[in-house]
Amino acid sequence: MRLSRHLRLVFVVAVLVPCAVLAVLSVRSLGREEAFLEKRLAQSLDAELTYAVALVRENLGRIEELLSASAPADPGSDPRAAFAAWKKAAPLVGVPFLLDSDFRILWPTRTAYLDAADLSFLNWNREFISDAAAIPFYQNAALLYRDQVTGGGGDQGTAEKLMAANPGEVKGESKKDAAQRAEAPVMMQMKVGAAAPAATAEKDAGDKLAAKSKIEDVRAEQQALSEFEQSDAARKRVYDEAARMGQKAETRNVRPAGGAPAPSPASAAPRTESIYISEPRRFSEITAGREAGLIPRFIEEKLGWLFWKRLPSGRIVGCRLDDGSAKAALLARLPDVYSPARILTFLDENGRPLVTPAGQEGRDWRRPVAAREVSEILPRWEAAAYATDPGALASRARATRYLTILIILAMFVVILSGGTVVLATVRSEMALARQKTTFVTNVSHELKTPLTSIRMFSEMLKDGRQPDPDKQKKYLGLMASETERLTRLINNVLDFSRMEKGRRAYARKRFDLGALVEALVESERTRLEPAGFSVVFHDGAESSVVEADEEAVKQAVLNLLSNAEKYSAGVKSIEVEVGREGGTVCVDVKDRGIGVPPAEREKIFREFYRVDTTLTAPVRGSGLGLTIARRILRDLGGDVSFAAREGGGSVFRISLPEAGRP
Ligand code: ADP
Prior knowledge:
The chain contains 17 helices and 18 strands. By secondary structure, the chain is an alpha+beta fold.
């Protein structure tokens, strides 16, 4: 018992606990794998978005170039004809305008030929283009505060550094203007050509210096942008600085769900603040030091664009872009919006998709897997990517998780049941080993007891110490019965080992079982009655002929009789009854002995099994008597069974099939 508890403990510690730990680890790593895959998806979508954004920026550049190239070089005092030609050449031109060098509106004038579009344009833009009012102007915060991004923020300010890096530039412009120029790749600025030195050698040197500083500039810009993407701290520094400068931070229209493009876990939370910050600027400030450009302009929450170009005469020609044509030109040559894996689209300033694939109208466009802001010319626009079937990934992950858990459960069931079987086997093997040990002790003792009495009586007779012939006869009788007991015991042991090897051969013949049992009972009676037993035999069968091995059956009956004798305590009574029951001949051996507890009733037929295994047990035995009896009877087509006897004691029944007619 103690050993099996120990075994159970070993099983739990060596098998179950490691399995449980492995199971937990595997489920956890599965979860991590899922997160990793999601992040990977977001990253690959982000790469696609970067490409799409680059295409849109290219389109922006192309729009500006086209407008600039087709703009009338000298519209004269009545630009109507020139503007009509411009509109014809470039469908992007919505409402053209003309200003003198002091931002006085020359066209459209109040008086002449104003149509509804001109009127509406003037209503919304008169103040701005005549430099009387400021509008929100958008800038890339990461580039504007490059030093704060890269963790600098030393004594020299951003603008000063930029000035130092661009010695050829016009002096006297504001710090912000200089900083604004840092956005060159997007803004498609045109250089003011007036500052070129006269001497060629000097010019060459200047060009080289400018080219070098330009490369450094681009590198610094890229560094600032990626640092801004990756570091929460850098972003905080920038927004704090912007707030201090009175600039307004915008909130993005989307909340990307997937992992941030940055690989560092610190910045895994997607950004919700826009990289573009705005501050009020007047037209003169925006155009200062530059030759042409596009200006984003929100009118009643709707984004439109103004194009302007400085003419050699100092006047400014420009136009409000035609919304439809502008959007078409911006979204030209983009990657396919739909693929089986993802949907890639651009969202406008109000978070609505500019291109929607069929069947995707009901989607929550504010929750893309990945998103990117596009340009300061397109504030609040987003390039956004979505999983085509957002449920697919999640349900696949769920299915894999369930499957893993199921496999783990199955593994536990197998381990537990296997372990139980192994434990049970080990336990029964241990019990058998114990029984074999007690068997050896018991058999030795069984051999010793009759031998001792035989020796005692034979010595007594040999020395002539018992002159009484009656007593002498009694002693000889006792010696004979003890010898028989010895023989039976040895036979049992030998038979058992023979049976174990499957080598017992039976000599079958017809005989009367009732007669055999009667003869056995009568011969035992002579021994039992003097020992205080009442022995009753009753044959209730008319015929009890069986076909079996007589010697073997005799051995089985004697084993039962011997048990009835051994296990009778107070009431020494043995009844043997022969009868017939449905084609079988039965022999019941009944006693009024100690009986067998219910839990032991089948076990007593097992080899070496004894109810009382203590060495101080009042009755000794080998634990083989019933095993052999049952084996013999079963081999001969019958059986031995136990039944508790009413009023106390046991009934062992031998049954054998009746023999057919000869
Ligand atoms: P042994 O008698 O040598 O121990 P057996 O195989 O004959 O071996 O019996 C197995 C066990 O069955 C005994 O140890 C005893 O506990 C129980 N048993 C057998 N016969 C009787 C009986 N007539 N009355 C009570 N218990 C019995």
